[in-house]
Amino acid sequence: MSDKKPAIVTRASPVIGAGLVAAFLKEGYNVIATSRDASRSFTTSPNLVLIDGDIGRQGIATKCTEAPMRHFETIDVLVNNAGIFRTKPFTDFTTEDFNALVSTNLLGFLYITQLAVQQMLKQKSGNVLTISASLADQPVAGRHASVSMMTKGRPESSNPKSSNRIRKRRYPLQRYSPRRRGLTAQR
Is 20 part of a structural domain of the chain? Predict the structure, then answer.
């Protein structure tokens, strides 16, 4: 067993995801990085396990939570960074558009978070951080994002402050919105 803590990062692709992977590795973590093409963005190493696939598929979420157990024996951090965002007028969204949003933004969040939290509860330790869209908190007039935001605002309901059941079980859930932290340009 490694004395380094393992972290799972979803959508470990350029920008936020890649930055998270690099930061965790720099801080001495072992990292399980997943995205549709993680192996194109990174090179596997003893401290970095790559899983290519769609996080909206239950099998990929299972692989992502089994990998740290197999390689490092714990799950210490899950960062839910995966999400898709589409802008178009409400009436122009198709069933395919909506299904893609639900698959990644809701099912991807649900599958991996349930599995990770189950393991964290057994371990009696761990943290889950979910990166949400700033538009979920502060809509911008003229942005045709209402359908996307229906699926990206989902971490709000998993915030420990909003559920007595979560507080009683001590689920390790945290929500992070870049705009709330003043990290995005305001219009």
Answer: yes
